[in-house]
Design goal:
This protein has seven helices and no strands. It is an all-alpha fold and about 110 residues long. It has one domain: Serine Threonine Protein Phosphatase 5, Tetratricopeptide repeat (Alpha Horseshoe), CATH 1.25.40.
Length: about 110
């Protein structure tokens, strides 16, 4: 997808495609864009983008998506252990609950 699509209101599609494809230069113009990129990166396992956002750009490791699922929860659900470790190291709250009351801790308990 091209950057001209951003002008037509497809900003999130461009961010999603760039994060999923592993584009080398992924930039965001707003905090909301960066938070959305973090949600996508945690979900799909893009370690590089997660590191850039939380370690270098200071995006909150407790960011949640539209369903109140934290990026830590999303990474844990998808089995992205390296991302979980990065988020915890950056002080992500393991007790943040989804709308239905699950936390990252609950997900870990289900696997046992």
């Amino acid at each position: 997808m091209c950057w001209c699509c951003v002008k037509r209101g497809n900003r999130r599609e461009v961010i999603y495609e760039n994060v999923v494809s592993g584009a080398h230069q992924v930039e965001w113009s707003t905090k909301a864009d960066a938070e959305y990129a973090l949600v996508v990166a945690a979900s799909v396992g893009n370690v590089r983008v997660v590191q850039k956002l939380v370690e270098q750009q200071g995006i909150d490791p407790n960011t949640v998506d539209e369903e109140s699922m934290s990026v830590l929860y999303l990474a844990a659900m998808a089995g992205h252990l390296e991302i979980v470790e990065i988020l915890v190291k950056c002080q992500a709250n393991i007790n943040i609950q989804t709308k239905v009351g699950f936390s990252k801790f609950d997900i870990d308990s289900l696997g046992k």
